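User:
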Amino acid sequence: MPVRHEIKSQLAKLLATEDLIVENKKVETAEFNVHTRVLTLPLWDRASNNVYDMLVGHEVGHALYTPDTEWFLERKISQQFVNIVEDVRIEKLIKRRYPGLSKTFFNAYNELSDSDFFDVQGKDLDELNLADRINLYFKIGNFVDIDFSIEEMLYVNKVDSCETFEEVLDVAEELYNYCKEQMEQQETIAPTEGTGENEGSIEPGDTTIDSDEEATEEVDMDYQPKSADNGPVLEDFEDMTSGNSGGETNIDDEPEVETAKSLDEALKNLVSNTGADSTYFELPEVYLDRLIIPNDFIYNRCQEEWKGTEETYRNHHFYQENPHLIKTMDEIFEDVDGEFFKFKKSAQKEVNYLVKEFEMKKSAGAYARATTARTGVLDTAKLHTYKFNEDLFKKVSIIPDGKNHGLVFLLDWSGSMHQVMLDTIKQLYNLLWFCKKVQIPFDVYAFTNEFPYGDRTETGERVAAYKREKNKADFPDWFSLMHLFTSSTRSKELESQMKDIFRVVAAMDHNTRTNYNIPQEMRLSGTPLNEAIVCLHQILPKFKKQHNLQKVQCVILTDGEAQPMRINKEVQRPWEEDPYLGTVYTSRNTFLRDRKTGNTYSMDKEWYEQTDVLIQNLKDNLPDINLIGIRLLSSRDAGQFIRRYSGYGTDLNNKLMSEWKKNKSVAIKNSSYDSWFGLLSSALSSDDEFNVNDDATKVQIKRAFIKSLKNKKMNKKILGEFIELVA
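Assistant: Predicted structure:
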């Protein structure tokens, strides 16, 4: 069974009892950065679960107990010797903290011993130096026989008794000096072994130094600069084994822990070299003032465009010759404004219905939580019952205050919305008029890639709305949020703005003939929904604080999938010295990392599922926010949408499809949204008037009447879902 690396990451976090940043990458050895608290784990795909869990537990032990100190600047000790003593200490402490890990370590080291990860099979263990035997003793001592002399047992006990890192350094230094002394003694004895006839003779090519004193002096000279290079990074020690620029070195001059080196090399074989490396990225902090187009700026831009339309009419030669046909602003917008006011009047019934439903549900909820308390004042009407009734005091009902709610609406301003945008705006207006009546604060944003708002650089480029950094999500150059409506606007001004947007969306409807243009920047574009969700991390808390709210409802309305996200990534091009910061799409083995919550999210999904990941990340950061999704669907898209969350041919799929066929809407419960509704786009129409021709037959009248009732029912269902949440 393949290893699920992100589950192992969660294990590391649980063991560490902190939100470590865990990265699973194609590296040969594990590494923990004590400064950034980032634990990098190799992709040990060839390791068993026991071995993987042991390796994770071992690295977490370092994360918990190995301090961030530059000990090597003061203590000239071999890194290898410090490592083996520290390994004993941190494994002892992590097993003491989590006794259940003892079995995992036992089974894992049993597997490593059987697989000869320490490269000791067929070797005489007594010939290994003391450091090697101590390393084997504390790792696989349960499975191999290791002998120590009485003198050596003193060092074994010292290693076993280490509780602090300072004690580790002291013992490691003692152990190193002992092994070095033993090695020097063997080197001294070696030339005098044996007394043959050739004793003292010099063979051709022999370069043996005559003086032991001279040999010792040479060893000390080689050792000094190498010790000075020791550091906390393993690579620094490995450089010592191959020499340095200061002169030649001899590996035999220094004691080594060969079993530790063998284990490191064997563990590298557990790492798979196939497949793509993991990519971790984070969400950037954006500058909202460069992204959000202010409410008044939008409407000033509309008025500029339409004044230009009026001047065009006046200057056209046809109208100059026929002054009675000159178009004024009122004449240009006469038809569309008439439709707006007609809709506003007809919508009051639905708005009043929403207000009534809201007040009823709110009152019912409040009284359900009501409590009764005695006042301490005698109720004179009960005095005559004093002989059999002890409750003679007046009571008062305490009704708790409801929570303060607010609404943030995120509207899809993409090209595919043109057929339903007008009906969508009508539904939005119903909600805004409702919010205005019951005094619920609101903000409405539309996400777009067409409005190039913001400052410019000297070269004419738009000033970036976020700091571009490697391994951070990228934003499209022209991404913006249009702040269409806000409850902070006065009622009269709000109505004027709603009328202007009604004009804009009416011109998008191909079935509507208009005599005016709309600003180029407000034309429909792509679907930067993912980028808009990232902005909500800052928008929603700011909105909540501004209005002193306890609960915020965020409604996201779209008719399609978001465009894929891109990541800023450094690329080293052969013809450049410095790396180039380019962008790549999220792909397999890509993970979103959140340093604030400590969570890591797999993006190893279909591209349309990335939005679910971002929604979940937003909820994890803002748990007091209700996120409501509304997906507009055509009849042919409904089946595919439902299968994404229910599978094919399952009981759940059959249930949801039946709900869709009956109501032309469906509620998805297993998504990242708190509520995720699929709605038939054509059912959004608010034109529920019962209209028939004068010569209509009975059958036509019946069909028109049924249709009007269905539309009313659908509208009330859509809007009623929202009322349930805020009441």
